[in-house]
Amino acid sequence: MNIPMKPDLSQVQQQQLRLSPKLQQSILILELPLAELRELINRELEENPLLEEETGLNEPDSDDEFGFPETQPGKDFLQIQAPEPDLHAYLRFQLAMHLSSPEDLSIGEEIIDSIDDDGYLTTPPGEIALRLKVEEKKVNEVLEIIKTFEPTGVGARDLKECLLIQLEEKGEASPLLKELIQNHLPLLSRRSQWKKLSQTLNCSLKELFDAFQRIRMLEPKPGRLFSSSTSTYIIPDLVVKKVQGELLIFSNRDYLPRLTLSQTYRELLKDGQAGKFLRKKLSSARWIIRCIEKRTETLERVAGFLVKKQEDFFEFGEAKLKPLSLSEVGKALGMHESTISRAIRGKYVDTPLGVFPLKVFLTGNPSKKGPGFSEASIKEEIKRILKEESREKPYSDEEIALLLKEKGISISRRTVTKYRLELGIPAKSQRKE
């Protein structure tokens, strides 16, 4: 029996989180590295007449009491040229940190060998599976792990996937952004089509512009950060100095223009001569200044806690790094983990031991390693054990694991093997004399 179909109308409610433009700007300013933040500030100075750069500040004539060097005209304070790292070596280093089984490591090596200099996977997982005689599902599982490595977006198969990985990592993959990247990138690049595009997506031109700005901040070629053809400069956000035996942390304020509100335009506002345009620009200028101050305050709070928690690092080096997770920092400071993650991403600190990314002070959870032991400290202990072993009868990896257990460090023989290989130490048979 045929039953005639009738059109059915129904309402579906969907919840969608939309961040206000001001909140989006606040998040952007928090997560931008110092060099990019200066570019943003310079653009704002050009576009907003209510913003001015402060001048005529009293600068010290020589080194101040904290030992800061005098800033030379035309020279960026604390601009340090980074070494030229290799993308594939960096990915292999992360691979060894995340995987331990020989099969997974073999698959991971093959995937990394198939990633080009821009960071894209150039060989389909199916082909890698055939080459290694493993299931394609297994290759995809390892690939998903590699796609969590830095630089964010590495291991993607195309531009769309690369951008989406970055959005997911930032926690900003809104339905509008995902739709634009997956289906409308060519139209988004042509502003003449924006009105038509906003109608198609049922969003305002302002929402479309904000989405465009977010996508512009993503990196289409994550691997090029490791290109040997360009020099990479690190501008530390923070400086750690030892003053009278105490570690103090300071912001690198010299690098950014100091912003203030234009006195000329403020007088116009007082006289009631300003129109809607100037009032809007005043609100925007105040918000920018507030966001930059909040960024500095957040960075100093987070970095101050990390430095205090990892005080032994500044005395004895990486081996003394303590296990510390984002959640621990968040609980201690009363901040959300995502705020801390944004605050430290891409930020560097200049210390008496050199320049380090802030994330180096977060070493994960203690897990089964035992309280107070980070991966770096365990490796140092392995080196110490092997330095004292008998050359006629060197230790096996299993014996090293037992010796570590006696010291309160509980890790498997396989983990000992992995750490030993990462340290470049040969196997027992090769160490025997």
Description:
This protein is an alpha+beta fold and 433 residues long. It folds into 3 domains: 146 residues, no CATH class; 124 residues, no CATH class; 57 residues, Homeodomain-like (Arc Repressor Mutant, subunit A, Orthogonal Bundle), CATH 1.10.10.60. The protein is built from 20 helices and 8 strands. The strands form 3 sheets. A 4-stranded mixed beta sheet has the order 5-4-7-8, with helices on one face. A two-stranded antiparallel sheet has the order 1-6. Strands 2-3 form a two-stranded antiparallel sheet.
Order of strands, widest sheet:
5-4-7-8
Give the CA-CA distance, first to last residue: 89 Å
Run of helices and strands: HHEEHHHHHHHHHEEEEHHHHHEEHHHH
Structural class: alpha+beta
The biggest beta sheet is recorded as: 4 strands, mixed
Shape designation: flat
Strand elements, count: 8
Overall mean pLDDT stands at: 78
**What gyration radius follows from the Cα positions, in whole Å?**
27 Å
